[in-house]
Amino acid sequence: GSNVLRMSSGIQIKTKSSAQKSKTCSPESQPKPSAKLNPKTIDPFRAYSQPSSAFAATYARGGIPCRLVHGSVKHKLQWECPPETVPFDPLLLTLAEGLRETKHPYTFVSKEGFKQLLLVEGAAEKVIPLLPRLVPVLKAALAHADDEVFGRGLDALVQLSAVVGPSLNDHLKLLLTNLLKRLMDKKYREEVTVALQKLEHCGGRVS
Fold it and tell me: Where would one find coiled-coil regions in this protein (predicted)?
């Protein structure tokens, strides 16, 4: 209540809230224990108890130097500094983590950011040392139950393969189980087959 008193329009707010109070405490309202079951009372706690994903937290902090720009036809990504000047470690890993996001704008930023970072000149030599850390993150996207997350992971893997070529071969066995699992699913068969052909083309024979 001390906040209420501090506000200049204290009296109005007080009367308003006491009116609301008498309403909720009136005998017609349900007995108090039901308040626990009321989604309104549960939600705020749930929001706090679930740690926001690392990607969302980094994005909120401004740790990802690109932003979504809403266009009338399609969205695009705007970088705060040229992508070629950005440190791949940790940004590429953070963007790869973001592929598992299911909320807008994280989905777009992570997918597009990952793609654009890989397009910068000299990307290969920056990415190759990161592969041991990057591949498990992509594996998590490929193992995700969400179809769109899997699709983003698959696209990212193909883009990565195009950049690093045979360097990816040693790491592919980590990912093949996830790819083969989806290959059994009619819905993905074509998509995964095309991806495997591209991986083979970029990396030489995939055993």
Answer: none
